[in-house]
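Late entry, written up from scratch paper. The run itself happened at the end of the previous shift, but nothing got recorded in the book at the time, so transcribing now.
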Amino acid sequence: MSKTHLYFVPGLAANTKIFERISLPEEHFELHFLDWMLPTSIDESIQDYAQRLCAKIQHKNPILIGVSFGGIMVQEMSKIIDCKKIIIISSVKNNKEFPKRLKLAQITKVYKLFPSKVIANIESYERYFFNDYLKKRAELYKIYLSIRDKEYLQWAIYNVLHWKQEESIPGIIHIHGKKDEVFPIKYIKNAIEVENGTHVMILTKAKTISEILKKECFLMD
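Output as recorded:
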């Protein structure tokens, strides 16, 4: 029996460890994980970057799965290579699904003030995390947000906010948490909703997401 190949792209600044709790039947699926690369320059287009990621795919007609910014990236990749399905998690299908604050950030260019330095140097800021919740969140950042190159962070934030996709690509499977704080569910259409799922539900709801992925990946067109 030939296996279905799934290629995963993580969220902005995240590494592929965010997928370590995803479990799918090994007899049916082979999982591949694409790490972020540094942009060739701060001005590299998202299309050129997607082309470079596609060069890492070694199987024909895979299923592409992306989380958050990774969801945007797999949609761009699907314009370059043939794929069986596109599945996005905690992401958006077009720029109309952005919340108002992100649209405002794009218009006012306030994104240039985003704390990329904090992410890049999380250890230097640890002394400011006073309570246990913030300390735990800082530990999670260190484990899962390991792509801390300042130019990459600025490039990625810019390309999220300036994504030009105005209409959804037909047939996208969208898995979204009902308590997502980055892309609130009220702006999202046609998604499989996950009860109590937040923007980091790939970690906290991995069992639920694994079950949804298994079901959707078996439903081959």
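Residues 82 and 199 are 28 Å apart (CA to CA).
(Scratch paper discarded after transcription.)
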